[in-house]
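@channel sequence for tomorrow's demo:
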Amino acid sequence: MIDFKKFELNAEINSAMKNIYPKKEAVEIFSAICNGKDITKYGDKVDKVMAYMKHIGQKAVDGDVQAKAEINAIRTMMIEAPLVKRLSLFDFMGEKIQVGYDEEVRYKVYQLQGKKSGEQANSGSFPFATANWRTEVMTEFTTITGGFVVDYREVATGNTDAIAVANEQVVTDMLNQMFYKIMVAYHTGIKNATINNYSEGAGITKIALDNVLKKARRFGNLTITGDYSVIEQLSDFAGFTTTTNTVMFSEAVMEEIRKSGLLKFYKGFPVVEIPNTYNVTKFNNTKEFFETYLPEGLLLIVPSGATSPLKIGIKGGLTSMSGTDISLRAEVTRFDMEFGTKLIKEQAYQIGLLSDTRYEVNKY
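structure tokens (generated this afternoon):
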């Protein structure tokens, strides 16, 4: 029988790993079972793992506190692994910084002051530039939370499908909350910056988009990204007007739109749709359909090869707690991760942003 009793959690997200002693492979096997992955390579270990999980599941149903703690620790590791992996999606949105619980996120902001070059007579004197910098501390951390009502009978009976669904929902909810904070940080920081590359209006117009692209292009190769609601508006800009004022599309553009319904490139820049799922627990303002997790009206122009003005901080790892909710009369498990964002105002102009004012930005 596999012994899960001795385990040690490494809460530092810097390693992006969790250690469990003495049988880490058992957690991997149970995770593969829940997620419907190939388990033939594990041989008879699969039956041993399932037998043990059913055993501690039944003990948890009977009120064994230690069994509940074991199941909670195992599910925490099962949730953190895909969550940390998906956090890599933020790399193209900003500079991701990962620190431990007892550390703080600090970064330097450099500024050049004075005359940097010029022309003068032989042996003449001229002023030199100086580089100044300041240290800023990211203090805008909030706790991103997810969770579910626990039914230990699912473990006791081996109903792994239900476990996989609950775990996936926690990962999706927490990731969308983080992505929402990033989008709002971009909108608030860029719009309020003294010097910015920002445009807003009732809809995305070709003139506004071209102006933002022109300014952002000098910072590097660009990627145009946003929700489907704004991306699909770009298809109308790819045509050309004939002498009879008829808008026509090239065969290549028509093929792109035919395959995916969206334009893949605009003026040589890749167009990338940000997945934005529905929050089926919340209606939109008109109460006629569901609300989306992320803002629908923001179109970002992100240059590559430049240091991003947006800093994304993750402190520590995923933590969990289980207990009884009196109002629900049920066992619940809560998962938390400390997450923060900071937009450097002096560099906000590097990112282009268009806002379709027909859609709300603040959803919470």
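heads up for whoever presents: The CA atoms of residues 146 and 173 lie 7 Å apart.
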